[in-house]
Amino acid sequence: MIIKSFIVIIFSLSQLGLWGQTDFLIEAESFLNKGGWVVDPQFVQQVGSPYLMAHGMGTPVDNASMTITTETDAEYHVWARTKNWVPGKWKAPGRFKVAINQVNLENELGLHANWNWEYAGKVNLKSQRTVVELVDLTGFNGRCDALYFSQQNESPPSDFEELKPWRAQKLKEPLEPETFKYYDLVVTGGGLAGCAAAIAAAEEGSKVALIQDRPVLGGNASSEIRVHTEGIYGKFERILQKIDTYHYPNGSDEAILDQTRRDENMSKYANIDIHLNWRAYDAVAEDGIIQHVDARHTANGERIRFIAPLFVDATGDGWIGYWAGAEYSYGRESKYKYGEAWDKWGELWSPEVADNAVMGSSILFQTVEDQKASDFPEVPWALPVAGDHEAVAGEWYWEFSRNDLHQIDDAEDIRDHMLRAIVGSFSNAKSNPDNSNYRLQWMSYLVGKRESRRLVGDHIFTFKDVQDKVQFPDSVVQEIRAVDIHYQQNLVDDTKPDFLSEALFYRTQKYYIPYRSLYSNNINNLFMAGRCFSTSHAGLGGPRVMLTTGQMGAAVGFASVICKKYGINPRAVYKQHLDEYMQLIEQQQLLRP
Questions:
Q1: What pTM was estimated for this model as a whole?
Q2: Which domain holds residue 22?
Q3: Is the residue at 344 inside a domain?
Q4: What are the pLDDT digits (tens) for 236-248?
Q5: How far is the C-alpha of 148 from the C-alpha of 457, rounded, in Å?
Q6: CATH code of the domain containing 32
Q7: Are 382 and 420 in contact (CB under 8 A)?
Q8: Which of 12, 113, 343, 421 is the most exposed place for a label (fewest CB within 10 A)?
């Protein structure tokens, strides 16, 4: 396997211009040996590519490295596309260097605000194998998107729109994926909603593609984010017990055990092709029908076109619907739009005038108390966010949202704000002798989101549906969990830090979500499952948790089976075959785990 990977890297680099060319581009995520650096694909739409990040929690990580071969001896200038993720008066926290054959180039990198090309230095490359390394200097999230080697002392374009075609030209990318794959159902997003959709369809004989941009399944429940699942199983206990979690403390390494069980259960389905580390980047629709979804491997850049009659958007952010032109909403509706006023909480629940406020994103972390004291680096760059807040533990309420920040477009800034909040608060706590033995053991670098885009279906589920306990003819999801809407504590108490939230609860009896909220109203072959289902902001408060979204996934998976049987679109399941579909759903309760 290692030999095969080495050959792939050398071949791909020969396509980047190492043979007879005066310049070449290396995507950092394609490094064969990533050392302690991690691939971060969360912000491709904003950054332009996945990138490598030195997520060492204050301890420099092992070097990332790869071997290249050039044809002739020549002097090259080397640039790295990077950023200083905390610009200001303090020394940049994410500094690193480029090393050639174990010799560091002269300049430190990660010094300038915003994604840009920084000059690493120049080097004489011999016509032999050369080892290129990324050398982390701090352990605090230095990041590298790409390296550019050129015999001309000229920086690559920095403008985002100019960079995209330049990058494609340097990598000699074809205009479209060269690999096409065909399925009955394509599911994008490997959280509980996506996994449940894939299982439900596969058990009924469909050939399913499950596309996930991470190395593991589970989304927020994965070992990478570590949120325990909440909600009820509804009619799908048998399916959801294959992929859920125990009720461990959020951030606990017990998530690793559930990860193993989830991965093993998913791998048992021969007719589910699980594409890990593949990130969808486009969905093309014609006349309201998605033709295909294109995805790229997050490390080697290979691309696949996924073709099917039916698609499920379980991305959370509603990316498939967004690219395909689906109608969507974002933010809080006016309390008058759907009659969602709840005077007990006033503006914090539903405002007089619609706005862009949404529930925030979280980063979880875990500490341990050792037998002896340990040091933690000084982090002056984190203290403007952390203030004097002290913490050796985190939970769900470590959350950040602000009306002028978009949970998709500004997600990298939101994540970085939370990283500063965590390390700053932990550093403050370490100054207390009572906490001297605490050590930061684990911290996610992945954004755990609660709310962003919500795709619009034939029915928009609202808080009023919960209040009225509406039982729809197509009720396929049920829940008893309280409607739970978050807001930042500093909105009501300006002495509180901006990265802690509070929850508003509306406790209720069982409520129901209809099938009509699980398919698009204007993209005819698109289902949605997860927090991007058709709902209002206030309506999302209860069913956004993972067992409930898992019910949505199972429901659309079974609906796709009816579509396949009759050659129809999702809406026709409701209009023409509702009795048969509901009978299929009811049968799931009789199949015990």
A1: 0.94
A2: 2-170
A3: no
A4: 999 999 999 999 9
A5: 45
A6: 2.60.120.260
A7: yes
A8: 343
